Amino acid sequence: MSFLKSFLPPGSSEGLRQQQPDTEAVLNGKGLGTGTLYIAESRLSWLDGSGLGFSLEYPTISLHAVSRDLNAYPREHLYVMVNAKIGEESKESVADEEEEDSDDDVEPIAEFRFVPSDKSALEAMFTAMCECQALHPDPEDEDSDDYDGEEYDVEAHEQGQGDIPTFYTYEEGLSHLTAEGQATLERLEGMLSQSVGSQYNMAGVRTEESIRDYEDYSENTNHSINKDYEKLI
Protein backbone atom coordinates (compact mmCIF):
# COMPACT_ATOMS: atom_id res chain seq x y z
CA MET A 1 0.00 0.00 0.00
CA SER A 2 1.26 3.46 -0.92
CA PHE A 3 1.18 4.88 2.60
CA LEU A 4 3.84 2.36 3.74
CA LYS A 5 7.24 4.04 3.96
CA SER A 6 10.78 3.19 4.92
CA PHE A 7 12.07 4.69 8.17
CA LEU A 8 14.15 3.85 11.20
CA PRO A 9 12.25 2.23 14.07
CA PRO A 10 11.93 4.23 17.30
CA GLY A 11 14.64 3.55 19.86
CA SER A 12 15.35 4.32 23.49
CA SER A 13 15.76 8.03 22.69
CA GLU A 14 12.05 8.11 21.75
CA GLY A 15 11.00 6.26 24.89
CA LEU A 16 10.45 2.79 23.47
CA ARG A 17 8.17 0.91 25.89
CA GLN A 18 7.31 -2.27 24.01
CA GLN A 19 8.73 -4.05 20.95
CA GLN A 20 6.60 -6.92 19.74
CA PRO A 21 7.98 -9.02 16.87
CA ASP A 22 5.97 -11.37 14.66
CA THR A 23 2.88 -9.15 14.79
CA GLU A 24 0.40 -8.99 11.92
CA ALA A 25 -1.03 -5.59 11.03
CA VAL A 26 -4.53 -5.29 9.60
CA LEU A 27 -6.01 -2.02 8.31
CA ASN A 28 -9.77 -1.81 7.77
CA GLY A 29 -9.95 -5.56 7.26
CA LYS A 30 -6.97 -5.77 4.85
CA GLY A 31 -3.83 -7.53 5.99
CA LEU A 32 -0.58 -5.59 5.64
CA GLY A 33 1.70 -8.48 6.49
CA THR A 34 3.69 -9.55 9.52
CA GLY A 35 6.30 -7.37 11.15
CA THR A 36 7.33 -5.71 14.42
CA LEU A 37 5.18 -3.37 16.46
CA TYR A 38 6.98 -0.56 18.30
CA ILE A 39 5.13 1.17 21.12
CA ALA A 40 7.15 4.27 22.00
CA GLU A 41 6.34 7.42 23.93
CA SER A 42 6.66 9.49 20.75
CA ARG A 43 4.63 7.34 18.34
CA LEU A 44 3.19 3.94 17.53
CA SER A 45 5.05 2.27 14.65
CA TRP A 46 4.95 -0.96 12.68
CA LEU A 47 7.58 -2.22 10.22
CA ASP A 48 7.50 -5.34 8.07
CA GLY A 49 10.50 -7.50 7.22
CA SER A 50 11.48 -5.32 4.24
CA GLY A 51 11.68 -2.16 6.34
CA LEU A 52 8.40 -0.67 5.13
CA GLY A 53 5.78 0.43 7.60
CA PHE A 54 3.86 3.31 9.14
CA SER A 55 3.68 5.41 12.28
CA LEU A 56 0.66 6.73 14.15
CA GLU A 57 0.68 9.86 16.28
CA TYR A 58 -1.04 9.45 19.65
CA PRO A 59 -3.28 12.54 19.32
CA THR A 60 -4.94 10.88 16.31
CA ILE A 61 -5.68 7.67 18.26
CA SER A 62 -9.19 7.88 19.70
CA LEU A 63 -9.45 4.33 21.07
CA HIS A 64 -7.31 1.32 21.85
CA ALA A 65 -8.34 -1.95 23.48
CA VAL A 66 -7.61 -5.65 23.68
CA SER A 67 -10.18 -7.52 21.59
CA ARG A 68 -10.90 -11.12 22.53
CA ASP A 69 -14.20 -11.40 20.66
CA LEU A 70 -13.58 -14.15 18.12
CA ASN A 71 -16.88 -13.32 16.42
CA ALA A 72 -15.56 -9.87 15.54
CA TYR A 73 -12.14 -11.19 14.46
CA PRO A 74 -10.84 -14.77 14.48
CA ARG A 75 -7.75 -13.96 16.60
CA GLU A 76 -7.19 -11.97 19.76
CA HIS A 77 -5.49 -8.65 19.05
CA LEU A 78 -4.82 -5.04 20.00
CA TYR A 79 -7.50 -2.86 18.41
CA VAL A 80 -6.63 0.75 17.58
CA MET A 81 -9.04 3.34 16.14
CA VAL A 82 -7.53 6.39 14.42
CA ASN A 83 -9.33 9.62 13.47
CA ALA A 84 -7.80 9.86 10.01
CA LYS A 85 -8.18 8.47 6.51
CA ILE A 86 -5.31 6.05 5.87
CA GLY A 87 -4.75 3.71 2.97
CA GLU A 88 -4.43 3.48 -0.79
CA GLU A 89 -7.56 4.31 -2.79
CA SER A 90 -8.34 4.62 -6.45
CA LYS A 91 -9.12 8.00 -8.00
CA GLU A 92 -12.69 6.92 -8.64
CA SER A 93 -13.30 5.96 -5.01
CA VAL A 94 -11.68 9.17 -3.80
CA ALA A 95 -13.99 11.23 -6.01
CA ASP A 96 -17.03 9.34 -4.75
CA GLU A 97 -16.03 9.81 -1.13
CA GLU A 98 -15.40 13.52 -1.63
CA GLU A 99 -19.09 13.86 -2.53
CA GLU A 100 -20.19 11.69 0.37
CA ASP A 101 -17.90 13.49 2.83
CA SER A 102 -19.05 16.97 1.84
CA ASP A 103 -20.71 17.18 5.24
CA ASP A 104 -18.14 18.61 7.67
CA ASP A 105 -19.61 16.60 10.55
CA VAL A 106 -18.39 13.31 9.05
CA GLU A 107 -14.98 12.43 10.50
CA PRO A 108 -12.79 9.82 8.75
CA ILE A 109 -11.89 6.76 10.82
CA ALA A 110 -9.31 4.00 10.28
CA GLU A 111 -9.31 0.71 12.20
CA PHE A 112 -6.05 -1.10 12.92
CA ARG A 113 -5.68 -4.56 14.39
CA PHE A 114 -2.28 -5.71 15.66
CA VAL A 115 -2.25 -9.49 16.02
CA PRO A 116 0.81 -10.88 17.83
CA SER A 117 1.73 -14.52 17.35
CA ASP A 118 2.05 -14.71 21.14
CA LYS A 119 -1.33 -13.58 22.46
CA SER A 120 0.00 -13.55 26.05
CA ALA A 121 1.83 -10.33 25.09
CA LEU A 122 -1.45 -8.46 24.59
CA GLU A 123 -1.67 -7.23 28.19
CA ALA A 124 1.85 -5.78 28.05
CA MET A 125 1.06 -4.16 24.69
CA PHE A 126 -2.12 -2.62 26.06
CA THR A 127 -0.38 -1.32 29.21
CA ALA A 128 2.39 0.27 27.14
CA MET A 129 -0.24 1.91 24.92
CA CYS A 130 -2.04 3.35 27.96
CA GLU A 131 1.17 4.78 29.41
CA CYS A 132 2.21 6.40 26.13
CA GLN A 133 -1.27 7.71 25.33
CA ALA A 134 -1.40 9.40 28.74
CA LEU A 135 1.66 11.46 27.77
CA HIS A 136 -0.34 13.05 24.93
CA PRO A 137 -3.57 14.45 26.46
CA ASP A 138 -6.18 15.94 24.17
CA PRO A 139 -5.84 19.76 24.32
CA GLU A 140 -9.63 20.09 23.91
CA ASP A 141 -10.14 18.09 27.11
CA GLU A 142 -7.75 20.38 28.99
CA ASP A 143 -9.65 23.47 27.85
CA SER A 144 -13.09 22.04 28.57
CA ASP A 145 -13.00 23.12 32.24
CA ASP A 146 -11.98 26.69 31.48
CA TYR A 147 -14.52 29.33 32.47
CA ASP A 148 -14.68 32.30 30.10
CA GLY A 149 -17.04 34.43 32.19
CA GLU A 150 -16.07 37.03 34.76
CA GLU A 151 -15.46 35.85 38.31
CA TYR A 152 -17.14 37.61 41.23
CA ASP A 153 -14.42 38.82 43.60
CA VAL A 154 -16.14 38.81 47.00
CA GLU A 155 -13.18 40.30 48.85
CA ALA A 156 -12.79 43.15 46.37
CA HIS A 157 -16.46 44.05 46.54
CA GLU A 158 -16.47 43.98 50.32
CA GLN A 159 -13.67 46.55 50.22
CA GLY A 160 -15.69 48.77 47.90
CA GLN A 161 -13.73 47.86 44.77
CA GLY A 162 -15.14 46.73 41.47
CA ASP A 163 -18.58 47.09 39.97
CA ILE A 164 -21.34 45.95 42.28
CA PRO A 165 -24.68 45.16 40.64
CA THR A 166 -27.50 47.49 41.73
CA PHE A 167 -30.72 46.07 43.19
CA TYR A 168 -33.78 48.07 44.23
CA THR A 169 -36.65 47.32 46.57
CA TYR A 170 -40.13 47.67 45.10
CA GLU A 171 -40.61 51.20 46.50
CA GLU A 172 -37.12 52.33 45.43
CA GLY A 173 -37.74 50.94 41.98
CA LEU A 174 -40.87 53.03 41.53
CA SER A 175 -38.88 56.20 42.24
CA HIS A 176 -36.55 55.32 39.36
CA LEU A 177 -39.34 55.10 36.78
CA THR A 178 -39.06 57.33 33.73
CA ALA A 179 -41.92 59.62 32.67
CA GLU A 180 -43.01 56.96 30.19
CA GLY A 181 -42.87 54.34 32.92
CA GLN A 182 -45.00 56.47 35.24
CA ALA A 183 -47.64 56.87 32.52
CA THR A 184 -47.68 53.12 31.90
CA LEU A 185 -47.95 52.50 35.64
CA GLU A 186 -51.01 54.75 35.92
CA ARG A 187 -52.63 52.98 32.98
CA LEU A 188 -52.06 49.57 34.62
CA GLU A 189 -53.53 50.79 37.90
CA GLY A 190 -56.61 52.08 36.06
CA MET A 191 -57.07 48.75 34.31
CA LEU A 192 -56.72 46.90 37.60
CA SER A 193 -59.29 49.11 39.29
CA GLN A 194 -61.84 48.65 36.50
CA SER A 195 -61.31 44.90 36.32
CA VAL A 196 -61.70 44.28 40.05
CA GLY A 197 -64.65 46.64 40.44
CA SER A 198 -66.64 45.15 37.59
CA GLN A 199 -66.15 41.60 38.79
CA TYR A 200 -66.99 41.97 42.47
CA ASN A 201 -69.40 44.95 42.71
CA MET A 202 -72.45 43.04 41.50
CA ALA A 203 -75.65 45.03 42.30
CA GLY A 204 -73.89 46.43 45.37
CA VAL A 205 -73.98 43.02 47.11
CA ARG A 206 -70.93 41.39 48.68
CA THR A 207 -71.01 38.06 50.45
CA GLU A 208 -68.27 36.57 52.64
CA GLU A 209 -67.42 34.18 49.79
CA SER A 210 -67.11 37.03 47.31
CA ILE A 211 -64.87 38.94 49.72
CA ARG A 212 -62.54 35.94 50.07
CA ASP A 213 -62.51 35.52 46.29
CA TYR A 214 -61.81 39.23 45.91
CA GLU A 215 -58.85 39.04 48.29
CA ASP A 216 -57.42 36.00 46.46
CA TYR A 217 -57.94 37.63 43.08
CA SER A 218 -56.41 40.88 44.29
CA GLU A 219 -53.33 39.12 45.61
CA ASN A 220 -52.78 37.20 42.35
CA THR A 221 -53.45 40.24 40.20
CA ASN A 222 -51.13 42.45 42.25
CA HIS A 223 -48.42 39.81 41.88
CA SER A 224 -48.87 39.92 38.10
CA ILE A 225 -48.90 43.73 38.06
CA ASN A 226 -45.76 43.80 40.20
CA LYS A 227 -43.99 41.84 37.49
CA ASP A 228 -45.04 44.45 34.97
CA TYR A 229 -43.70 47.16 37.29
CA GLU A 230 -40.34 45.44 37.42
CA LYS A 231 -40.15 45.45 33.63
CA LEU A 232 -40.64 49.20 33.63
CA ILE A 233 -37.61 49.90 35.84
TrEMBL record:
Keywords: Cytoplasm, Cytoskeleton, mRNA processing, mRNA splicing, Nucleus. GO terms for biological process: cell volume homeostasis; chloride transport; mRNA cis splicing, via spliceosome; spliceosomal snRNP assembly. Residues 1-22, 135-160 are annotated as: Disordered. Signal peptide: none annotated. It is found in: Cytoplasm, Cytoskeleton; Cytoplasm, Cytosol; Nucleus. Residues 139-153 have a biased composition (Acidic residues). The keyword Cytoplasm applies. InterPro entries: ICln, ICln/Lot5/Saf5, PH-like_dom_sf. One of its GO terms (cellular component) is cytoskeleton. Its main location: cytoplasm. Involved in both the assembly of spliceosomal snRNPs and the methylation of Sm proteins. Chaperone that regulates the assembly of spliceosomal U1, U2, U4 and U5 small nuclear ribonucleoproteins (snRNPs), the building blocks of the spliceosome, and thereby plays an important role in the splicing of cellular pre-mRNAs. Most spliceosomal snRNPs contain a common set of Sm proteins SNRPB, SNRPD1, SNRPD2, SNRPD3, SNRPE, SNRPF and SNRPG that assemble in a heptameric protein ring on the Sm site of the small nuclear RNA to form the core snRNP (Sm core). Component of the methylosome, a 20S complex containing at least PRMT5/SKB1, WDR77/MEP50 and CLNS1A/pICln. May mediate SNRPD1 and SNRPD3 methylation. Forms a 6S pICln-Sm complex composed of CLNS1A/pICln, SNRPD1, SNRPD2, SNRPE, SNRPF and SNRPG; ring-like structure where CLNS1A/pICln mimics additional Sm proteins and which is unable to assemble into the core snRNP. Interacts with LSM10 and LSM11. Belongs to the pICln (TC 1.A.47) family. This is Methylosome subunit pICln. It comes from Diceros bicornis minor.
